Protein backbone atom coordinates (compact mmCIF):
# COMPACT_ATOMS: atom_id res chain seq x y z
CA UNK A 1 0.00 0.00 0.00
CA UNK A 2 1.22 3.46 -0.87
CA UNK A 3 1.69 5.82 2.10
CA UNK A 4 2.43 9.46 2.83
CA UNK A 5 4.56 10.51 5.84
CA UNK A 6 3.60 13.41 8.11
CA UNK A 7 5.55 14.89 11.01
CA UNK A 8 3.12 15.83 13.78
CA UNK A 9 3.83 16.60 17.40
CA UNK A 10 7.41 15.35 17.04
CA UNK A 11 6.25 11.99 15.66
CA UNK A 12 6.54 10.66 12.11
CA UNK A 13 3.36 8.92 11.00
CA UNK A 14 2.79 6.88 7.84
CA UNK A 15 -0.68 7.50 6.43
CA UNK A 16 -2.21 5.08 3.93
CA UNK A 17 -3.30 6.67 0.67
CA UNK A 18 -6.90 5.62 0.06
CA UNK A 19 -9.40 6.40 -2.72
CA UNK A 20 -12.34 8.64 -1.90
CA UNK A 21 -13.76 8.81 -5.43
CA UNK A 22 -12.71 7.38 -8.80
CA UNK A 23 -10.33 10.29 -9.35
CA UNK A 24 -9.37 11.43 -5.83
CA UNK A 25 -7.40 9.80 -3.02
CA UNK A 26 -6.38 11.11 0.40
CA UNK A 27 -3.73 10.33 2.99
CA UNK A 28 -6.07 8.86 5.61
CA UNK A 29 -5.50 10.22 9.10
CA UNK A 30 -7.59 8.39 11.69
CA UNK A 31 -6.71 9.46 15.20
CA UNK A 32 -9.13 6.98 16.84
CA UNK A 33 -7.23 4.37 18.81
CA UNK A 34 -3.82 5.89 18.09
CA UNK A 35 -2.68 6.73 21.62
CA UNK A 36 0.91 7.30 20.46
CA UNK A 37 -0.15 10.34 18.44
CA UNK A 38 -3.01 11.94 20.41
CA UNK A 39 -1.01 13.37 23.30
CA UNK A 40 1.95 14.72 21.25
CA UNK A 41 -0.46 16.32 18.77
CA UNK A 42 -2.49 17.90 21.57
CA UNK A 43 0.65 19.35 23.20
CA UNK A 44 1.91 20.78 19.89
CA UNK A 45 -1.51 22.15 18.91
CA UNK A 46 -2.04 23.74 22.34
CA UNK A 47 0.98 25.97 21.66
CA UNK A 48 -0.81 27.39 18.60
CA UNK A 49 -4.17 28.13 20.26
CA UNK A 50 -4.55 31.61 21.76
CA UNK A 51 -4.65 31.68 25.56
CA UNK A 52 -7.85 33.75 25.34
CA UNK A 53 -9.82 30.68 24.16
CA UNK A 54 -12.33 29.79 26.88
CA UNK A 55 -13.78 26.65 25.28
CA UNK A 56 -12.85 24.18 22.58
CA UNK A 57 -15.43 22.78 20.15
CA UNK A 58 -15.26 19.98 17.60
CA UNK A 59 -17.63 17.92 15.49
CA UNK A 60 -18.49 14.37 16.43
CA UNK A 61 -16.57 12.00 16.20
CA UNK A 62 -12.98 11.51 14.95
CA UNK A 63 -11.58 14.52 16.83
CA UNK A 64 -13.00 13.56 20.22
CA UNK A 65 -9.77 11.94 21.54
CA UNK A 66 -7.82 15.00 20.36
CA UNK A 67 -10.13 17.58 21.95
CA UNK A 68 -10.22 15.59 25.19
CA UNK A 69 -6.42 15.55 25.44
CA UNK A 70 -6.18 19.16 24.27
CA UNK A 71 -8.56 20.28 27.02
CA UNK A 72 -6.41 18.44 29.57
CA UNK A 73 -3.19 20.01 28.27
CA UNK A 74 -4.80 23.48 28.29
CA UNK A 75 -6.31 22.86 31.74
CA UNK A 76 -9.88 23.44 30.53
CA UNK A 77 -12.50 21.64 32.64
CA UNK A 78 -14.91 21.23 29.69
CA UNK A 79 -15.05 21.02 25.92
CA UNK A 80 -17.97 20.97 23.50
CA UNK A 81 -18.93 18.36 20.92
CA UNK A 82 -21.33 19.27 18.11
CA UNK A 83 -23.39 16.11 17.65
CA UNK A 84 -24.31 14.63 14.25
CA UNK A 85 -27.93 14.05 15.20
CA UNK A 86 -30.50 15.58 17.51
CA UNK A 87 -30.75 13.41 20.64
CA UNK A 88 -33.82 12.98 22.80
CA UNK A 89 -32.14 14.68 25.76
CA UNK A 90 -31.45 17.88 23.81
CA UNK A 91 -33.55 20.95 24.58
CA UNK A 92 -33.97 23.64 21.95
CA UNK A 93 -31.09 22.48 19.72
CA UNK A 94 -29.63 24.58 16.94
CA UNK A 95 -28.79 22.68 13.77
CA UNK A 96 -26.72 23.30 10.65
CA UNK A 97 -25.72 21.14 7.70
CA UNK A 98 -22.28 20.08 6.49
CA UNK A 99 -20.87 18.07 3.61
CA UNK A 100 -17.26 16.96 4.13
CA UNK A 101 -14.84 15.44 1.65
CA UNK A 102 -14.98 12.03 3.38
CA UNK A 103 -18.77 11.60 3.49
CA UNK A 104 -21.13 10.74 0.65
CA UNK A 105 -24.04 12.83 1.79
CA UNK A 106 -24.95 15.92 3.71
CA UNK A 107 -24.88 15.61 7.50
CA UNK A 108 -26.09 17.78 10.34
CA UNK A 109 -24.26 19.22 13.32
CA UNK A 110 -26.19 20.38 16.37
CA UNK A 111 -25.79 21.86 19.82
CA UNK A 112 -28.25 21.66 22.68
CA UNK A 113 -29.34 24.47 24.96
CA UNK A 114 -26.76 23.64 27.64
CA UNK A 115 -23.86 24.01 25.19
CA UNK A 116 -25.43 27.12 23.65
CA UNK A 117 -25.52 28.70 27.12
CA UNK A 118 -21.84 27.79 27.65
CA UNK A 119 -20.80 29.34 24.35
CA UNK A 120 -22.76 32.60 24.66
CA UNK A 121 -20.36 35.50 25.14
CA UNK A 122 -17.28 33.24 25.18
CA UNK A 123 -14.17 32.99 23.01
CA UNK A 124 -14.11 29.63 21.23
CA UNK A 125 -11.40 27.62 19.45
CA UNK A 126 -12.63 25.26 16.73
CA UNK A 127 -10.67 22.00 16.65
CA UNK A 128 -10.57 19.38 13.88
CA UNK A 129 -8.34 16.47 12.95
CA UNK A 130 -8.02 17.51 9.28
CA UNK A 131 -9.15 20.67 7.53
CA UNK A 132 -9.62 20.11 3.81
CA UNK A 133 -12.55 21.86 2.16
CA UNK A 134 -13.27 23.83 5.34
CA UNK A 135 -16.93 22.78 5.34
CA UNK A 136 -16.82 21.26 8.83
CA UNK A 137 -15.05 24.29 10.27
CA UNK A 138 -17.57 26.63 8.59
CA UNK A 139 -20.48 24.62 10.04
CA UNK A 140 -18.95 24.74 13.53
CA UNK A 141 -18.33 28.46 13.15
CA UNK A 142 -21.97 28.96 12.19
CA UNK A 143 -23.09 27.10 15.33
CA UNK A 144 -20.73 29.12 17.55
CA UNK A 145 -21.92 32.41 16.02
CA UNK A 146 -25.60 31.46 16.32
CA UNK A 147 -24.98 30.52 19.97
CA UNK A 148 -23.48 33.98 20.62
CA UNK A 149 -19.83 32.98 20.84
CA UNK A 150 -16.76 34.43 19.15
CA UNK A 151 -14.39 32.18 17.19
CA UNK A 152 -10.80 33.08 18.09
CA UNK A 153 -9.03 30.16 16.45
CA UNK A 154 -9.50 27.41 13.87
CA UNK A 155 -7.01 24.58 14.47
CA UNK A 156 -6.28 21.11 13.11
CA UNK A 157 -3.60 18.48 13.21
CA UNK A 158 -3.41 18.49 9.40
CA UNK A 159 -4.30 20.89 6.59
CA UNK A 160 -5.18 19.07 3.38
CA UNK A 161 -4.76 20.38 -0.15
CA UNK A 162 -5.53 24.08 -0.60
CA UNK A 163 -6.42 24.43 3.10
CA UNK A 164 -2.68 24.64 3.79
CA UNK A 165 -2.71 28.06 2.07
CA UNK A 166 -5.39 29.47 4.37
CA UNK A 167 -4.22 32.26 6.67
CA UNK A 168 -7.10 31.83 9.16
CA UNK A 169 -6.15 28.35 10.43
CA UNK A 170 -3.31 26.83 12.43
CA UNK A 171 -2.10 23.27 11.92
CA UNK A 172 0.85 20.96 12.58
CA UNK A 173 1.56 19.62 9.08
CA UNK A 174 0.05 19.58 5.61
CA UNK A 175 -0.96 16.75 3.31
CA UNK A 176 -1.72 16.81 -0.39
CA UNK A 177 -4.81 15.60 -2.21
CA UNK A 178 -3.95 12.87 -4.70
CA UNK A 179 -5.79 13.45 -8.00
CA UNK A 180 -5.80 11.00 -10.88
Task: Describe the overall structure.
With 180 residues, the chain is α/β, with parallel strands linked by helices. Helix content is 23%, strand content 38%. It has 4 helices and 11 strands. The protein has helices at residues 35-46, 64-73, 113-119, 135-146, and strands at 3-8, 11-21, 24-27, 55-59, 80-82, 94-98, 107-111, 123-131, 150-160, 170-175, 177-179. The strands form 3 sheets. It has a 5-stranded parallel β-sheet, with helices on both faces. A 4-stranded antiparallel β-sheet has the order 1-2-3-11. Strand 4, helix 2 and strand 5 form a beta-alpha-beta unit. Helix 1 crosses helix 2 (64-73). It is globular and about 45 Å long. The model has no long low-confidence stretch (mean pLDDT 93).
What general outline do the C-alpha atoms trace? globular
Number of helices: 4
Major sheet details: 5 strands, parallel
The share of residues in extended strands comes to 35-45%
Termini Cα gap? 17 Å
**SSE pattern:** EEEHEHEEEHEHEEE
Radius of gyration: 16 Å
Structural class: alpha/beta
Uncertain parts = none
Helix content: 10-25%
**Rounded average pLDDT:** 93
How do the strands line up in the largest sheet? 5-4-8-9-10
Question: What's the total count of β strands?
Answer: 11
Amino acid sequence: METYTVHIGGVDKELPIVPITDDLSIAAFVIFGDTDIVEPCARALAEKIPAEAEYLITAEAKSIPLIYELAKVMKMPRYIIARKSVKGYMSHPIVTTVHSITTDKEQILCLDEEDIDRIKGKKIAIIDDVISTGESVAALEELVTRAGGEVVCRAAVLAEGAAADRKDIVYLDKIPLFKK
